[in-house]
Write a structure and sequence with these properties.
Largest sheet of chain B: 13 strands, mixed
Shape of chain B: elongated
Low-confidence stretches of chain B: none
Structural class of chain A: alpha/beta
Distance between the termini of chain B: 51 Å
Strand content of chain A: 15-25%
Number of strands of chain B: 17
Mean pLDDT of chain B: 96
Strand content of chain B: 25-35%
Radius of gyration of chain A: 22 Å
Order of helices and strands of chain B: EEHHEEEEEEEEEEEEEHEE
Radius of gyration of chain B: 19 Å
Oligomer: heterodimer
Low-confidence stretches of chain A: none
Largest interface: A-B, 8 and 5 residues
Distance between the termini of chain A: 39 Å
Chain lengths: ~550, ~280
């Protein structure tokens, strides 16, 4: 097979402790290989990367890019689509629409154009897995996968009530296997079901979910334990209760403690770090220092941020009551979905304005997280696309992290009250390129347990982004010179050159198959579809790669 | 002499001419205007494939469209200043999203006249289609400024989600005028369709033909009879633009209704009271 040589670039590969060293990178069969021992070997193709910055391809560990909720958001926002730039058909690529929620093909092209080569959809009800696979198949170039929602799953809650951890474990594994998903996701555990069945949302981890006689705390602990015992590469992916409400930091803190040492990834943590009185928006303030300190001290925890950026976007969540809350606050159109035994969904258009004290504070709280978690290996960059903003804003976030002055410029123009309600102005930390390479690729890959992603060592997937050095950091990260995916040049000077299909990453944890008849009995009493039609068959997957689970020692 | 763009023969497939922009044609030669690409179905073709072009908009900032342009869409879309005259009919989206200037149509116009317009004036001497001054589907704000005057009839959903500005219709009008209106003024002089102002928050809808005025929907409440001062100001302004007013309109009294109480309830509907 032909070899590709990326020659003489300045490499930032944090996993292999390479911090801005000039290196050659050899690629064959879609993987990074050792440099040939014979120094006279000539590669079939060489990119002269002298003076360029080389990083592994970006990894987005939390976004919403496929499945029914994403598609509904596309359909309910013709006003956004109409004004957004088109993606025009070229020799290599298909046409598409952009805006806050790009169409499937455009999503692949836009991620690639940004130097991202892997992305995970964060919230798929297992019943919608088949649809999600179909959309991911139409999302070109990038490698992808998704997390399976199970925080309000009736069967899991039933087993938790019966205090049967083996059955919980079996159900988690069975759901992941059925959906061909990558990770286990909890969305407002217990709260969505409570709201769907007429109870108000839950306010604390110790409020009982009607009809199930369990508490959010039980769901968090039970699923986190199951995920660890199944040896899944990614810990439980946790969207805490009370998202977006002033005063929710106590719930977040309790959630971290409730994990009791089990691994947990707290996602879009920005939205969960608010002080103040839930009934009075004006008391809103940052509580990042307290939470970040706890994360710093407890190595079982990782986070991604869910940065808010000032723009029009669409809020899209499996947290049904949150969608309703936003609709009431914003008065904008609203979609609510109820996935029978499994989940909820809310979609509401939203615009974050720099004239709003609340929105500016949300922006600042996101940045506080990046700057207050000491170990960049335990934090991942995200906007919770499209909730806090589009993934297209990542270069701007990078520029904000690397330049304190730029943050200060925004703070100088911020509405009254922002500066004293957060500590952003006091944070002098500035990220280095090495640290940026960690939070945008190396740490998300590590948190996801992807051995072959996020680095450029021998055997790694040949996903490489080549940036032109630029004093304007935002521009540098907006327009990579080349993007290489699986050893193929997919973007050349801003032009997408490929329509290849990326890999579908999933896991298949082992579990006790004797548990299936019990699941089937229950399933057939409750679901609207036949049991045998529920799992997504292996043959249905396009270009899959099964990532191994590890049996913990 | 104005820039004149004359349609040679009516096309069955619509031609979209939003690429002909006043800001650009002012400084362009006739040949440059002729070469401007317009959308014809799914193809882009030069303007001169369909139109004869002569004159210039350089001196008086005026464009004249001639011929039966009822399948020519987006005339004057995004207009910022200057004057456009359509000698004949115009197609859909006339003056859509315009922010200033003036458009006068001697004949009829299609749907979406002045959709999401921000300012300026549109005067259609004939009839207009549906959704005059409306929001485009999915959006949350229609017309936010300016004036639309239709001497003839207009269709359904006049001023859908309009936020500011004035729409006046001399002839008959369709159903649900002012649906989801946020604010602004809609003046209807002829026979009107059913269900005025559903889910309007604020704003004013006036029916000058009191006898044929529609029944109010149940979420509106009658609040008495009055002779509002502002009405005279609007009517005198319309009169100054050559709009013909019904007899006695300047001194008329009106039944007043408030609604929609499913929304904010600050909208008002007036129905002329002194005719019977």
């Amino acid at each position: 097979m032909p070899q590709l040589l990326i020659k003489g670039g300045t490499v930032y590969d944090p996993k292999n402790n390479i911090d801005g060293e000039v290196r050659d990178i050899w690629i064959q069969d879609g993987r990074i290989i050792d440099a040939p021992s014979d120094v006279s070997t000539k590669a079939d193709k060489t990119i002269d990367a002298t003076g360029y910055v080389i990083m592994p391809g970006g990894v987005d560990m939390h976004c919403h890019i496929a499945g029914p909720k994403v598609n509904t958001a596309r359909k309910m926002m013709p006003d956004d689509k109409r004004l957004a730039p088109m993606v025009h058909r070229t020799m290599h690529t298909r046409s598409g629409t952009t805006g806050a929620v790009p169409s499937t093909w455009a999503t692949g092209y836009l991620y690639s154009g940004l130097g991202y080569t892997t992305a995970f959809d964060a919230a798929v009800p297992p019943l919608a897995a088949r649809h999600t696979h179909e959309e991911l198949e139409d999302t070109p170039i990038i490698d992808k996968g998704f997390y399976v929602m199970m925080g309000n799953n009736h069967y899991i809650m039933k087993q938790l009530k019966e205090k049967d951890p083996e059955k919980v474990k079996a159900c988690v594994a069975w759901l992941i296997n059925s959906a061909k998903g990558y990770g286990a996701k909890l969305v407002n555990p217990g709260g969505v079901e409570a709201w769907k069945s007429g109870q108000r949302n839950v306010d604390t981890l110790d409020e009982t979910v009607d009809g199930f006689d369990i508490k959010p705390r039980d769901i968090i602990q039970g699923v986190a334990r199951a995920v660890d015992e199944l040896g899944m590469p990614h810990p439980v992916h946790l969207h805490c209760n009370n998202l977006g409400l002033p005063g929710n930091h106590d719930t977040t803190f309790e959630t971290m403690k409730a994990l009791e040492g089990y691994r947990g990834h707290l996602t879009h943590i920005q939205f969960h770090s608010y002080g103040g009185d839930p009934d009075d928006q004006l008391t809103f303030k940052s509580e990042v220092p307290r939470l970040a300190q706890y994360v710093n001290e407890n190595k079982n925890l990782t986070v991604d941020v869910g940065q808010v950026m000032f723009d029009k976007t669409t809020s899209m969540t499996g947290d049904g009551p949150l969608g309703y809350f936003l609709h009431k606050v914003l008065g904008r159109k609203w979609f609510s979905g109820d996935t029978e035994m499994e989940a909820g969904c809310g979609i509401v258009p939203i615009e974050y304005r720099n004239k709003s004290m609340i929105h500016t504070l949300q922006w600042a709280i996101g940045l506080e997280w990046y700057l207050m978690v000491d170990d960049p290996w335990r934090i991942g960059m995200s906007t919770d696309h499209p909730n806090g903003g589009s993934f297209m804003a990542y270069p701007e976030i990078i520029a904000l992290l690397m330049d304190r002055g730029r943050r200060q410029e925004v703070l100088d123009k911020a509405p009254d009250g922002v500066a004293e309600r957060c500590s952003l102005a006091d944070l002098s930390r500035e990220y280095t390129l090495y640290e940026i390479a960690i939070i945008t690729r190396a740490s998300p890959a590590r948190i996801l347990g992807l051995q072959n992603k996020g680095h450029l060592g021998t055997g790694a997937d040949a996903d490489v982004t080549i940036y032109s050095r630029d004093d304007d950091i935002q521009r540098m990260f907006e327009l990579p010179r080349y993007v290489v995916n699986r050893g193929e040049i997919v973007v050349d000077d801003g032009e997408v050159r490929s329509n290849a299909e990326g890999k579908l990453l999933h896991v298949a944890p082992d579990f006790d198959l004797d548990m299936i008849p019990d699941i089937q009995d229950w399933f057939e009493d409750h679901y609207t579809i036949q049991f045998r039609n529920y799992p997504v068959d292996q043959n249905y997957l396009s270009n899959p790669e099964q990532v191994p689970t590890t049996v913990p020692s | 002499m104005a820039l004149t763009i004359r349609l040679r023969e009516k096309t069955s497939i619509p031609v979209e001419v939003d690429s002909i922009r006043m800001d650009e044609v002012r400084s362009q030669s006739v040949d440059e205007v002729k070469a401007t690409l317009v959308q014809y179905g799914n193809r882009q073709l030069p303007l001169c494939d369909f139109f004869d072009v002569e004159g210039s908009a350089a001196d008086d900032s005026e464009i004249v469209w001639e011929g039966d342009c009822s399948h020519v869409k987006l005339i004057g879309a995004n207009l910022t200043s200057g004057k456009i005259r359509v000698e004949g009919n115009s197609g859909m989206h006339l003056g859509a999203e315009m922010t200033g200037g003036e458009i006068v149509v001697s004949g009829n116009s299609g749907d979406w006249v002045g959709a999401e317009m921000r300012g300026g004036r549109i005067h259609v001497l004939g009839n207009a289609g549906q959704l005059v001054g409306s929001v485009y589907r999915g959006g949350h704000r229609g017309m936010t400024g300016g004036e639309i005057i239709i001497d003839g009839d207009a269709g359904n959903e006049i001023g859908h989600a309009m936020r500011r500005g004035m729409i006046a219709v001399g002839g008959r009008s369709g159903d649900a005028p002012g649906v989801s209106m946020i604010a602004g003024t809609i003046l209807l002089f002829g026979q009107a369709g059913i269900r005025p102002g559903p889910s309007m928050r604020r704003g004013t809808i006036v029916f000058f033909d009191g006898e044929s005025a529609p029944e109010m929907i149940p979420t509106f409440r009658a609040t008495g009879v009055c002779r509002p001062t502002f009405m005279r100001l609007y009517l005198q302004h319309l009169k100054s633009l050559g709009f013909s007013l019904p007899d006695g309109a300047l001194d008329a009294r009106f039944h007043r209704y408030n609604g929609d109480f499913l929304e904010l309830g600050k909208g008002e509907i007036f129905v002329r009271a002194d005719l019977n």
